[in-house]
Write a structure and sequence with these properties.
The protein is of the alpha+beta class and about 140 residues long. It has 3 helices and 6 strands; from the N terminus they run αβαβββββα. The protein is globular and about 40 Å long.
Amino acid sequence: MIRDIITDDDVLSVACEPATAEDAQLATDLVETLLANEEAACLAANQVGETKALFAYLTEADRPVVMFNPQIVQKLKPFTTVETCMSQEDPAAVTRYKWIRVSYDVLVNGKLEPRKKKFEGWTAQIVQHMIDHCNGVLV
């Protein structure tokens, strides 16, 4: 189901609770909503009104990926950039890292399984943006 994008800072600034396998439909809704919005590269659950630590992003090949309970465990090469957000009107300057390692869960056969992955460049930047959303941090 395609959902409306939330712009209420009171909702977006709340740290999200851990996502579970029962949030599978929310994950599907995030992917559908993300794919329906041509200007979006990523979308967090709190951007559709659900305070769960869960997001979807598009790879450079426009393939959707869903991450449950993401956490940055290592980060290198800080830089400052200006980002926009579908839930915010104005662009904002933020510090990001060119290289990150993230631990997260994926849904496999109805169960969450842990994973770790390294990200660089643009994908690292949007994953950091989404992890900020999960932590209730606004750009």
